[in-house]
Amino acid sequence: MVSGCIAVRARRGFTLIELIVVFALLALLVSLAVPRYFAHIERAKEATLRQDLQVMRDAIDKFHGDKGRYPQSLDELVSERYLRSVPVDPITESTTTWQFVSPPLDADVKGDLYDVRSGAQGMAKDGHAYSDW
Q: Could you give the C-alpha distances from 105 to 27, 111, 133, in angstroms and in order?
């Protein structure tokens, strides 16, 4: 037994002030990171939409070059193996919202699918409407 020595147990843990400072710093970091995260997500969706439109338009052109007519639908491009599947519009998150453009009336061509556009409403970051791409 130790005589004359009183063991004082050190307190362990954090004070309320320390916790408040840590949470304030975390809140500050999150408030800076979250807007950048969502902006990055929007840019990624727009890049995906541009790429999907380019791939579908290329498939339409190849179909026209091979068959001498335009396809009737995107499903025909899939069934003829010009596309693996109908892509999902990244803005609307659906495969059914694509808008089809018919061939010009003065052109003497067959088929219904001359061009494809996004059915998404709204404007892109560059100021253009999604439906104009």
A: 59, 12, 21
Residue (of 95, 68, 96, 63) closest to 80 by Cα position: 63
Q: From CA 109, how far away is CA 24, in angstroms rounded? A: 65
Cross-strand pairs, 94? 89
> Token pair of 62, please?
């190849």
The DSSP output letter for 105 is T
Q: What's the distance, CA 91 to chain centroid?
A: 6
For the record, the structure tokens of 2 come out as 């130790």
Helix, coil or strand: residue 112: coil
Tens digit of pLDDT per residue, the chain (133 long)? 555 555 556 678 889 999 999 999 999 999 999 999 999 999 999 999 999 999 999 999 999 999 999 999 999 999 999 999 999 999 999 999 999 999 888 777 888 999 999 999 999 998 999 999 8
pTM for this predicted structure: 0.77
For residue 37 the two structure tokens come to 């995260």
